[in-house]
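Per reviewer request, we include the raw input and output of the structure prediction for the construct analysed in the revised manuscript.
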Amino acid sequence: MVGAIAGDIIGSVYEAHPIKTKDFPLFHPRCRFTDDSVLTIAVAEAIMTDGDYRRSVWGFGRRYPHAGYGGAFRRWLNSSSPEPYNSWGNGSAMRVSPVGWAFSSIDEVLTEAARSAEISHNHPEGIKGAQAAALAVFLARTTGDKEVVKNEIADRFGYDLNRTVDSIRPSYSFDVSCQGTVPEAIVAFLDANDYEDAIRNAISLGGDSDTLGCITGAIAEAYYGPVAQEVVDGVRAVLPEELWVITKRFCREYGPVYVWEG
């Protein structure tokens, strides 16, 4: 989960100012955590407690109201009784990665990913994007085989993963849809040599950088293992204590294994 949060934080500074290069400082001085981190941690908290994704996502979202939510989701947060609003946005996919760590079979991962999505993003594409992102994390950590990840996701969800970052980058632009974000995030992972390279791939596409970084970072951590101490330190420097404590607790329970210092 640290890998997902780090991807969000690293990409945060480029969301409003997209870039088309892999040459950038890993942690810019203006990096911050966004809604991607808050809601990823909310999903993790739900898994570790009562399994009520709506309660947790709604509660954490209201606790951190300035994290950068989209307009429709802000209205959902401000409702006293939030209902799904048929969204196909990538918000369902950016928060789902804990599901890929916590459950032990493909069927469980797909079921729980759908449950986590449909509290707000109950459009078929919203559910599909969440399932694909969670399954990619699950397969990356359990098989350690990029071809398995690629083929399983492509076959199940019809995403075109026969592309490279270099072929996507020139014409790609900001896209908040699941269908325009999740395949690109997976390609950024597939086309990488290590965790940092995956994050640089994702952000260099020039799209919804924090969300691309979050999804790609989640899969890359699941495949490559614990992220470097530099990355852990970068997360720790900006994440509020409450969110850091939950992150550590989730990793201790579900992995990957880190040696924490405070």
